[in-house]
Structures are given as C-alpha cells and as structure tokens.
Amino acid sequence: MTRTAKFRVWRGDANDGALKDYNIEVNEGEVVLDVIHRLQATQTPDLAVRWNCKAGKCGSCSAEINGRPRLMCMTRMNTFTDEETITVTPLRAFPVIRDLVTDVSFNYKKALEVPAFSGPANLKPGEYRMEQIDVERSQEFRKCIECFLCQDTCHVIRDHEENKEAFAGPRFFIRLAELDMHPLDTLDRKRAAQEKHGLGMCNITKCCTEVCPEHIRITDNAIIPMKERVVDVKYDPARWLGSKIRRREGL
Amino acid sequence: MTAIERHSFDVVVIGAGGAGLRAAVEARAAGLRTAIICKSLFGKAHTVMAEGGIAAAMGNVNSKDNWQVHFRDTMRGGKFLNNFRMAELHAKEAPDRVWELETWGALFDRTKEGKISQRNFGGHEYPRLAHVGDRTGLELIRTMQQAIVSLQQKDAAEFGDAEARIKVFAETTITEIIKDGDRAAGAFGYVRETGNLILFEAPAIVIAAGGIGKSFKVTSNSWEGTGDGHALALKAGSKLVDMEFVQFHPTGMVWPPSVRGILVTESVRGDGGVLRNSEGRRFMFDYIPEVFKEKYAQSEEEGDRWYADPDNNRRPPELLPRDEVARAINSEVKAGRGSPHGGVFLDVSTRLAPDVIKKKLPSMWHQFKELADVDITTQAMEVGPTCHYVMGGILVDPDTGAAAGVPGLFAAGESAGGMHGSNRLGGNSLSDLLVFGRRAGAGAVAYFQSLGGNVPKVTDASITTASDHALAPLRNPGGENPYTIQADLQQVTNDLVGIIRTKSELEESLGKLKGFRARLANITCPGGSAFNSGWHLALDLENMLLVSDCIAHAALIREESRGGHTREDFPKMSAEWRKVNLVAHVENGEVVVEKQALPEMREELLNLFDVEELAKYMTSEELTRHSKGANA
Ligand SMILES: Cc1cc2nc3c(=O)[nH]c(=O)nc-3n(C[C@H](O)[C@H](O)[C@H](O)COP(=O)(O)OP(=O)(O)OC[C@H]3O[C@@H](n4cnc5c(N)ncnc54)[C@H](O)[C@@H]3O)c2cc1C
Ligand code: SF4
Ligand code: SF4
Ligand code: FES
Fold first, then answer.
1. Residue contact A30–B258, C-beta within 8 A
2. What is the reported pTM?
3. Is the ipTM of this complex over 0.85?
4. What are the DSSP calls for B562-622, one per residue?
5. pLDDT tens-digit map of A124-167
6. Which one of A81, A234, B217, B286 is CB 3.0 to 4.6 Å from B490, fit for a cystine?
7. Pick the catalytic residue: B119, B192, B269, B519?
8. Total number of domains in chain A
9. Domain-ending residue, one of B384, B401, B423
10. Is A107's Cβ below 8 Å from some Cβ in B?
C-alpha cells in the first residue's frame, strides 16, 4: 500500500533556512523517521538528522512534527491523513545546527549543575537494601530517555532565552525529584530545586507531561510534590529533617 | 586543507557505551587526563537499548548460584570455545560491578528482602539477571553517565574546570588510529556537527566502539553498529578473533517492515512466553539438541511447572541458548509453518495476567502497541531471527584488555572478542562491558605509567594521510550513492553470510564483497562537510565492508556448526575444530584468516565439569590428558 506523501522539511543552518517541499513515497507501517531516511537515500543525501535506535529508546530523534514536539521514530504515518502535508522542523527551544539537528548542550550544562547521587557512607557496595515500593517512585523518573521534548515545549524557556540561565527545566526537575525520593540519597534536594534550579518559575501548565514519550507524569509526580515539599522545607526545617530520616508515605 | 583541531590526553576512550564509560571512570580514577569520544550524543550509545538485564551470580534469588555455576553456564553457552580466562574473570567480578552501580545511584528492581532482584534467562541455570523492568541498558548507561558527571563535578570543585581531567567529545567519529612505529600514538577523526577534522594525541587508546549489526539487513542494532572499532583495530595492525560467530537473536519483530529486526526481549520467554508455529504446536520441544537433553523439560507440563517450582522440574526449551532457538524458528518458517509475515508466534498472554505483563514488560507492551498495533496482553507477537551481537572481536589479553600486536591499544565490550566463544548468553554482555571496561581502563593506566617520558609522537605525514582519506568521499567525482551501496551490502551479507551458511554461498559472497571496494572508491557525497549524513555513511561503509569480509572469510574456513556459525554442509559440531580459533588480520589491504590454538582451560576449571559433559565437546586425546591431570 504505497502512497505519495507531501512533506515539508526545514532546511538550513544557524544563519539562514526555509521550509522545503518534497513528495515522497510511504509504505505501510512506516514512521516519520523512515520517510526522512528515504528522503536522504533518494532525494537529498546531506539532510541532517539525529537518530540512533529507531525504537523509541534513546531519545535522539526529537523534532517538531506539525508543530508538536515528538520522536520521529515513534510517530506512525497512519496518524496522518493521505492529503495532509507533514511539516518537520527542528526543536524550537534550542539553536539550530543544521536542518533537523539542534544544539542541545544547554541540557548537558544543566545536568552538570545537579549534584550527583550521594549514598550513605556507612554502606559498602552490596549492602544496599531498599524496598521495591520505595524505589518505584524514583524508577518512574529514571525511565527518562533524555529526548528533551519536555524542555522544548516548556514555555518558560521555549521563547525566552533569558530564562535559561536560572531555569533547569522539567527534565531536571524529575532528576531532582528522583534523587530526593531515592531511599538512600543523603543530600537536600528540595531547597536547591527552588533556589538554584528555578522550580519556582514553573507554573504547572503540564505541557511537559503531555509531550513525554515515556509517559512520565512530570508535573503530578515530580514537580507538584517537590513544590509542596519545598514549602514545607522552607518554613519548617525540623519537618524537613524528619522527612529525610523516615520517609512519609504518600507525600 | 581544512584546519585540524588538536587535543592531547593521557588516555583516549573511543566509545561511550557501557564498556567505554567504565574504562574512562577507571582511567580518571587513577588521575589520568581522559577523553571519551562517541558518534552520538552522550548517553545515547547502543547500550541504552539493552532490555533484559545484567548477569551476575549474586545469588539473591537462588542462593545456590555462585561464580562457578555462572562460569559453567557461560562456557556451555559458548560451546566451550570461549577464552576460559575471560569467562572466569567475568563470572568472578560481575557481582562487584553490579553492586558498584548501586553506589552510583542505579535503582534495580528488588527482592522481598530488599536486595537486587534477579530474573531467569536462556542458558542461565539460576535466576541471575539484575534488571530494571525491561530497560536495564538505559539504567546502566544513565548511571555511568551520571558517574562521569559526578567526577566532573569533583574536578569543577577542585580545579574550577569540570573538564580538567575527563572530557566528552560527543558526535565525533574516529576514522583512524595513528601509530608511531608499532605503538599507538593517537586517534584521528571528524566532528559531525561541523565537519572539522580532529586529532587526539594519546599514548593509550581504548576501543569500546560496540558491534557490527548494521552490516546485516535485519538487525536489532542502532546505526552506530557499523563495526568501526573492529575495523580501526584491524587497520592499525591488530587482530580479530572468532569473527565467524554472529548471534542472531531468535525474537525480533517481523512486522511492519519498517520495524523488522527490532528486538523482542528474551525476558518475554523468561517470564513465561511460549513459541508456537502456525499449527499451534510448541515446536521448541522438537529441537532440544543432544548436548542439552538432560537439562530441559521433555513435556509441556513439566516446562509449565518449572516457573513455579524450578528445583523439581526442568526448564522449558524456549529458554535454550539463542542459537538453538533462532535455528529452530528458521527451520519452522522454511518448512512452511510460519506466521503470516514470515515469523512464528510468541505468546505471553496465555500465561500472565494483563496487568502483570504491563508491569514486567512495559517497553514491550508499548513497542507492540505503538509500532505494530498489537496488544501483547491479549494477542500473540510475530517474531523471527534478527542480527543481534557479534561474538568475534579484537583479540585481547584477558587480564588487561591489551589488543594483540599494537602496544598502547586496548579494547573492551562488544568490540573485543573471546569472552563469549561461539555464542553469548543473554545478560552476559552488560556484565562483560563493566568487567572488561574496567580492566581495559586499568590496563591503559598501567601502560601509560610504564612509559615514563617515552611517549609516541604523531607525525605530520600521518595526519595528511588520515585527512585525505577522510575527505575523499567529499571530493570524489565517482557518482556512487552511499545509501544504495549500504542497502546492497546488507543484502549480500543477509543472503550469503546469514544464519545458515554453505561453502558455495560463502565463496559467492567473497566475490561480491570484493566488488564493493571499487564502488566505495567512487562514492560521491554532495553538500558540505557540516553534519552531512551521506558523508558519515560513506566512511562507515568502509568499516562495514571490512568486517563483512572477515566474517565471510572465517565462516568459509570453519567447517563445522557451532553456536553462531551454522554450516548446512557441515551440520555437526567437531571436537577437532573446538581446539581452534580463527584469527583475522590485514596484509597489503587483504583480509587474511589463520588458525590459532585455543588457550587450554586450567585443570581446576576443567574439574568444575563432569567428564561426561566434557566428552560431548572434547577429543578423546584431550579427555585422556584431563583424567591423568585429575589423578595427578
Ligand atoms: C536491543 C538490544 C537489547 C540488548 N539487551 C541486552 C541485555 O538485556 N543484556 C545484555 O547483557 N546485553 C544486551 N544487549 C547487548 C548489549 O546491549 C551490547 O552488546 C552492548 O551494549 C555493547 O556495549 P559497548 O559498550 O560495547 O558498545 P555500545 O554501547 O555499542 O557503544 C559503542 C560506542 O562507541 C561509539 N563509537 C562507535 N564507533 C565510533 C567511532 N568510529 N568513533 C567514535 N566513537 C565511536 C558509539 O558512538 C558508542 O558510544 C542488547 C543489544 C540490543 C541491540
Ligand atoms: S509544568 Fe512547569 S515545567 Fe512543565 S511545561 Fe509547564 S511550566 Fe514548564
Ligand atoms: S522527561 Fe520525558 S520528555 Fe522529558 S526528556 Fe525525559 S523522556 Fe523526554
Ligand atoms: S531514534 Fe532513538 S528514540 Fe528515536
């Protein structure tokens, strides 16, 4: 069931660029990335695109498809009508390098600002004991494939370059939440989230959750609980200590 | 000539998968200035795709497990062709490598006692694979990535520069190892983003560049699996061992065509999935080979009971080593008993409740739902063999990872050979990455420290040669399209060097592969050098071709069937051939494959096996020597 689809792909670099139209063959069961690859193979071999696993596991192939941040390898062609023109553009929140490839170094810089896991000094390797139910909360956040779609969609930085300095973005709010909820982490993450990583600038629009291909409930399970706890911590240091020593259920 | 960016490090690690990152941590921990180079973004290496788990005999689920049992399973899985010393080190050290991950923040699934949970997998006698749902590779790569970041944070605090002692060069491809005399002196390549050429001067270089799957048409590997590490070592004068052994994973997706090859994790079978043909028959019971007869259930009832009571029942044959299952599926499809799209049925819905499936196999559930419109909680999957892993790789010293023939060159992970013999067990790769990544890192450190001031130099002439070579596809007038060549090459390997091989087809493949050389020299890549995907592929193709050549040569010479090498014209395993490794090197631009004696297992390790079992693999002469040794 081969058909011809209309594609419009952004071509260019940091200086200049424009949308370019292509007519291209599509076969049954294909995803957008297949079609982009066919463009490379048959019409424009130098088209720049990032990808790696083609299985939704590495988070490399992020782009905006008809304006929506998505993974190209997980967007099936049968979600569009035959007549529809499919527009593929690079992530808007990051500077373009070439065609569909953007400079995502912002995210690696932010990763460096989150202090690493710091385990208890008295436990040797092999002595860690944790309950499944306690690790599950952090495990949800560790499903993150670092596609940076949530970062791309978040309005705090999407069109506000000036906010990037102070704002770590949803990807790193879940990293902070993950460490905070880690049964054996020993650092204070909550206060830092507010004071160093810009948690306060988030106004819970939930756009990040909507685009996450791993269906991580970024706002409900990470941002909102962190915000609540930050309030706790900021005004009641004694309670903060309590929560670190014996984790309370349901928080 | 384009300007060349120059860097100087103590140790350069090529590859940011599990093996490369573990090597880098080791080098940096010794205080050496370390570079990590990778083709993709940091944290996206192929390791991220690993699903089922990491094998380590921690004995958390069944306390009878220990390194000796793991060692035995590994040797059996590899049909006794493994480098015994590597299998020994691996089995002994894997638990420490897993526990160490926890101290860096990894969160594995837990047992009731709060220990790391372990699951069943093909060929492993006890539940042995530590796991995080079915995304264990992601956990491993993220943990290692964060371990590197934490070292950078320490350096930022100490030197005011996070990259003072460990720096990641992402989206940078190495095209050549540069030597000074016979010693490694540096690594040369290009930055994908800009197309700029780049030189790393370093006396110690660790190759951890992953596998070769992209040389085949149907594969579970990511685009990075173009055999660069294998080819870099060969071209630098080192050697590859066991290249005829390529693992075809029995269960890849077969439909829709665009996802053909994507992996369906073995955990589906470990957790109770059964294989059936179009007649509804659980055909694996018909394919239990002689050497495994006592270890596997002979009836469906016994196999079913094993999940609940493994001590009193034998495991179902769905959990035979991968090569056995892949060949069985291949035979069923050939016999006309396949599924509509040319695979067989894998069904987990009959044994597990929908919510349990979603919990235990979340990525599989998603993968089939989103890519194939199949709900695995109610429907069977269609699966078939896919090129998954290469057992062969750079010939290394087991203890230090030193690559044969080139002082200063080290290798680990899928790029290195020997550990898995003729067939790798599931879960044994992730543990291999960490055990031998660490060892290669330590090997590089020791070598660096032994040099004193006597450091090799990179000459201008060698830089010119390397850069001319890299830029050739951008300058050639030839007109060949790299994408077309890639497709043609993958078709040749698939048809002629694939899962079932014969003399005539292998000979034909060698002729065809030769024909690709001229075509490669005529590749033209329009566009500039900045992020030019066609140019990148053109350079990868050279490696894919060289590796395919080695596989075909070795496959033609080995006249027996064993593990990941099946010869239709020599269907039996031969005890004489077990004593032989095939080793490839390049001489005047041609691949030469020679026989080399397999290192002989130490007596105390041989004693871990029953003589009856050894008799299935070894010559009578070897057995006589062994029984004498045992008496002495
Ligand atoms: C789908 C899938 C599932 C798997 N599941 C499991 C499992 O459950 N358990 C298990 O044990 N094993 C599993 N495996 C196997 C295992 O994942 C791989 O063998 C392993 O990850 C290889 O790791 P590595 O560190 O050797 O290299 P890789 O992770 O492949 O990394 C290679 C690195 O080298 C870099 N590189 C390559 N060429 C160059 C170059 N020319 N210049 C610079 N850098 C370069 C790449 O960019 C990359 O960073 C699975 C494999 C697949 C495909
Ligand atoms: S919820 Fe917060 S972090 Fe998420 S998109 Fe909205 S503002 Fe950004
Ligand atoms: S949280 Fe989700 S959207 Fe954000 S980077 Fe991770 S996987 Fe992508
Ligand atoms: S290519 Fe890996 S997520 Fe799309």
1. yes
2. 0.94
3. yes
4. BTTB-BTTB-S--HHHHTEEEEEEEETTEEEEEEEEPPPPPHHHHTTS-HHHHHHHS-HHH
5. 999 999 999 999 999 999 999 999 999 999 999 998 999 999 99
6. B217
7. B269
8. 2
9. B384
10. no
